[in-house]
């Protein structure tokens, strides 16, 4: 992409076109945003922005001379407000092959009272119901729409369709705009439903922890909680939304553990009350300390037993020595 700078405008081709208008050629530079157009010094009747990457029709300074805008083959999806103030002489606007979606997105063009030719061919908006009559009603001074002359019969039909209260309501319903992001506005994130354990589930978990008698059993309970299972109850059902996500990821060759899916939706251990988690950790430490003490007692008993046996063997040896000293020598 190339920024629309003053240097680019000065270097671009400038010529007199076949209808004897002074034209500036900015075609095919992949320009993303309209800016710095004051560098044209309002010396052109026509500016050709075809084959670029422009998304919004705005950013114009006051250009009193400009009569024709060629914007075909861009990505325009929005039309800026107050175009009539920046382009008071614009008569022809070519928006062929862009991305305008809704009829309401064309409403800003209604204020451009000098506009007589408009092309919206190959835009999604042309497939909307009552498209042509809606545009004729909104821009009554239009003479040519999509390179077809607006007939008197079409004007009468448009006037009849959108006349009175019912017609005004119909125009309002048709003109519903797509929701677009407004710069500076806060982005609203959809609220996620928290699906943590119920009070009954918490009570069941506490009871299972209190009844655990070994480290192995506590670890088993911890594994069940991470898998979304409640001790003493049936396996918790996974919501349909999570099942759809899991199936879609498996189709892409990605296999996720149930624990990871539940963490994303707010289900796992992270959504559990803090007292339950602390109780699990406390139980693990308690059982661990007990087993360490039991092992320590066994070691001490073993050491005491070994010392006792050693003392007994030493006493037996001393007794044997005493008996040897007290026994009479033969022939004495």
TrEMBL record:
Main location: nucleus
Signal peptide: none
Bias (Basic and acidic residues) ranges: 280-301
Gene Ontology biological process terms in this record: mRNA splicing, via spliceosome
Self-association and partners: Identified in the spliceosome B complex. Identified in the spliceosome C complex. Found in a pre-mRNA splicing complex with SFRS4, SFRS5, SNRNP70, SNRPA1, SRRM1 and SRRM2. Found in a pre-mRNA exonic splicing enhancer (ESE) complex with SNRNP70, SNRPA1, SRRM1 and TRA2B. Contributes to the binding of stem loop IV of U2 snRNA with SNRPB2.
Localization per record: Nucleus
Annotated GO CC locations: spliceosomal complex; U2 snRNP
Tagged with keyword Cell inner membrane: no
Family recorded in the similarity comment: Belongs to the U2 small nuclear ribonucleoprotein A family.
KW Signal (keyword) present: no
Top-level lineage group: Eukaryota
Stored SMART domains: LRR_SD22 (SM00365), LRRcap (SM00446)
Region Disordered: start-end pairs: 247-332
Cross-referenced PROSITE patterns: LRR
One GO molecular-function entry: U2 snRNA binding
Protein name: U2A'/phosphoprotein 32 family A C-terminal domain-containing protein
Designated gene of the protein: LOC110506910
Function, in words: Involved in pre-mRNA splicing as component of the spliceosome. Associated with sn-RNP U2, where it contributes to the binding of stem loop IV of U2 snRNA.
Keywords, sorted A to Z: Leucine-rich repeat, mRNA processing, mRNA splicing, Nucleus, Repeat, Spliceosome
Acidic residues bias (residue ranges): 267-278, 302-332
The U2A'/phosphoprotein 32 family A C-terminal domain, residue ranges: 128-146
């Amino acid at each position: 992409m190339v920024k629309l700078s003053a240097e680019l405008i000065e270097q671009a081709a400038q010529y007199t076109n076949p209808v004897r208008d002074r034209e500036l050629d900015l075609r095919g530079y992949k320009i993303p945003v309209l800016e710095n157009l004051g560098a044209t010094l309002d010396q052109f009747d026509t500016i050709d922005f075809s084959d670029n990457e422009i998304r919004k029709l705005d950013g114009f300074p006051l250009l009193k001379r400009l009569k024709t805008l060629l914007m075909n083959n861009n990505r325009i999806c929005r039309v800026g407000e107050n175009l009539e103030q920046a382009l008071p002489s614009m008569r022809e606007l070519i928006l062929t092959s862009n991305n305008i979606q809704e009829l309401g997105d064309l409403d800003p063009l209604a204020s451009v009272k000098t506009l007589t030719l408009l092309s919206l061919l190959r835009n999604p908006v042309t497939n909307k119901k009552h498209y042509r009559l809606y545009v004729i009603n909104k821009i009554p001074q239009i003479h040519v729409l999509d390179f077809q002359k607006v007939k008197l019969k079409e004007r009468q039909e448009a006037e009849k369709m959108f006349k009175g209260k019912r017609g005004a309501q119909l125009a309002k319903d048709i003109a519903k705009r797509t929701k677009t992001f407004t710069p500076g506005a806060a982005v609203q994130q959809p609220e996620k439903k928290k699906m943590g354990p119920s009070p009954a589930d918490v009570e069941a978990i506490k009871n299972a922890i209190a009844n655990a008698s070994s480290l192995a059993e506590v670890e088993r309970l911890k594994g069940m909680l991470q898998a979304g299972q409640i001790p003493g109850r049936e396996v918790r059902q996974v919501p349909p939304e999570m099942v759809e996500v899991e199936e879609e990821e498996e189709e892409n060759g990605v296999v996720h553990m149930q624990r990871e899916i539940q963490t994303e939706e707010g289900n796992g251990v992270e959504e559990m009350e803090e007292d339950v988690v602390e109780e699990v950790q406390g139980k693990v430490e308690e059982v661990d300390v007990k087993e360490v003490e039991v092992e320590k007692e066994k070691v001490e008993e073993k050491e005491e037993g070994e010392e006792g046996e050693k003392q007994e063997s030493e006493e037996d040896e001393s007794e044997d020595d005493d008996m040897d000293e007290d026994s009479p020598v033969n022939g004495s």
